[in-house]
Structure formats: C-alpha cells, structure tokens
Amino acid sequence: MSPSSTGASAAPVTGDAVAIKNFAFSPATLKVTMGTTVTWINQDTDAHTVTSAGSGGPLHSAALNTHATYSYTFTKPGTYSYLCTIHPFMTATVEVTR
C-alpha cells in the first residue's frame, strides 16, 4: 500500500484571497480592482506577517498563527509589494486597478 499524494487538504483559495503556505504567498501576484478587500490566510504551521515593503505602505498585520487571517481593502490603484517580516524572503505583490 502506498500513501496517496492526491489528497491535499489545504483550504482552497478563491478570488480575492492569498494563501500563505510552504513559506510563500500564493498567488505571488494578485490582480484586483479598486475597492476590493483581500484576505490572507495562513495555512502554514509557522507564524507569518503581511507587511508592506518599504516605509509608508498600508499593510501591517500582526503575526498570523496557523489558520489566522488578515484583510485589507485597497482604495487606491497601484502596485503594493509586501513581505513577511519574520521570513523576509517571502515576497509578493497586489496590483490594484480602477
């Protein structure tokens, strides 16, 4: 008997959501329209943050434990780069259009 590799149990990520799993944000680039609320869901066993890259960005989550979420509504168009401050190699972008 061999273990099944098809039974992934990760929660599905739809529409305006970003999964945090395997030490990465997925999708790495999310495209949304202005006024959209994006929710990040930590599916890892380690804590992660959602923090704007550089100073002055709007994203500032606390450390998210497993299954914790963080949401932000984008009210201005632009490209928003962010990272996990605990694991700075984890980077991603939200592109907001009108």
TrEMBL record:
It is found in: Periplasm. The keyword Electron transport applies. GO terms for molecular function: copper ion binding; electron transfer activity. Pfam families: Copper-bind. SUPFAM superfamilies: Cupredoxins (SSF49503). Its main location: periplasm. Residues 19-96 form the Blue (type 1) copper domain. The keyword Lipid biosynthesis does not apply. InterPro entries: Amicyanin/Pseudoazurin, BlueCu_1, Cupredoxin, ET_Amicyanin. One of its GO terms (cellular component) is periplasmic space. Cu cation binds at residues 48, 84, 87, 90. Gene3D superfamilies: Cupredoxins - blue copper proteins (2.60.40.420). Keywords: Copper, Electron transport, Metal-binding, Periplasm, Transport. Binds 1 copper ion per subunit. This is Amidase. It comes from Streptomyces griseochromogenes.
